[in-house]
Amino acid sequence: MKSVVVEREFAHPPEKVWRALTQGPLLEEWLMKNDFQPVVGHKFNFRAQPNPHWNGVTDCEVLVVEPNKRLSYTWNASGDEAANGTKTIVTWTLTPTKSGVLLRMEQAGFRPEDEGFYQGANLGWNKMFGTLDQVLARI
Amino acid sequence: MRASPDVVFRSLADPTRRAILERLIREGELTVGAITGESGVSQPMVSKHLAVLKSAGLVRHRRDGREAHYRAQPKGLAPMVNWMSRYRDFWCDRFDRLEKLLERMDQ
């Protein structure tokens, strides 16, 4: 299992960042349409524009709510895509700093097959990746 | 109907097929004859490889008289998308948007 981690320091108080993470309308402004509520056990969806490869709906359930400190929810593929799709947990951690807050997002639980290309060790794959990356960018 | 990652992966595991697909991506539509010319294998083998790529959804073909024309179908690669790097880009972008929102919000 592997994680994606993104960290950034913001020159804003933790309470303000917490609001942006937990108030539905604010959350929609920077992340996605949602029916999130900061209540452990609450089931909700994030909704994005669907495309031919994705129904646009993420199934979530709130796991942890520690105001101004930690927030965690499941982040799973939905509908027909649920069986073989992404099944991860997103955890937000807020750590106060001198000038504001360090915000850390960890999306954990990626399986080897989610990494794509199976880290193919074959000769020639690297060249292929280069080409495919450009192609994928256009999809 | 899209192919599973396994099918796409298996179809690309063969270096000749990878070379054929790369060429189609690079050069657009080609006839079986033109593909055979530079592939170093016989035309029946090329046709076999193209059939595998086609069943994986990576190429499509049309008939024009006696000739079959093939072109790459990049969308067929979608099952192989690297979800981790996709999500890394996604979250970095969302952090940017969050930063802008925080600037706009009241204390």
Care to describe what's here?
The complex is a heterodimer of chains A (139) and B (107). The two termini of chain A are 27 Å apart. Chain A has 139 residues and is α+β, with helices and mostly antiparallel strands. Residues 117-139 of chain A have low confidence and may be disordered. Chain A has 3 helices and 7 strands, in the order βααββββββα. In chain A, helix 1 (14-22) packs across helix 2 (24-30). In chain A, a hairpin with a 3-residue loop joins strand 4 (57-66) and strand 5. Chain A has helices at residues 14-22, 24-30, 125-138; strands at residues 2-10, 33-34, 43-47, 57-66, 70-77, 87-96, 101-110. In chain A, 22% of the residues lie in helices and 39% in strands. Chain A has one domain (2-112): Alpha-D-Glucose-1,6-Bisphosphate, Chain A, domain 4 (2-Layer Sandwich). Chain A has a 7-stranded antiparallel β-sheet with strand order 1-7-6-5-4-3-2. The radius of gyration of chain A is 17 Å and the shape is globular. Chain B has one domain (5-81): Arc Repressor Mutant, subunit A. Chain B is of the alpha+beta class. In chain B, 27% of the residues are buried. The termini of chain B are far apart. Chain B is built from 5 helices and 3 strands, in the order H-H-E-H-H-E-E-H. Chain B is 60% helix and 13% strand. The radius of gyration of chain B is 20 Å and the shape is elongated. Chain A binds chain B through residues 2, 4, 6, 8, 10, 12-13, 16-17, 19-20, 26, 29-31, 52-53, 84, 86, 103, 105, 107, 110, 113-118, 122, 124, 128, 131-132, 135-136, 138-139, and chain B through 2, 4-5, 9, 12-13, 15, 18, 22, 25-26, 72, 74-75, 77-78, 80-85, 87-88, 91-92, 94-95, 97-102, 105, 107.
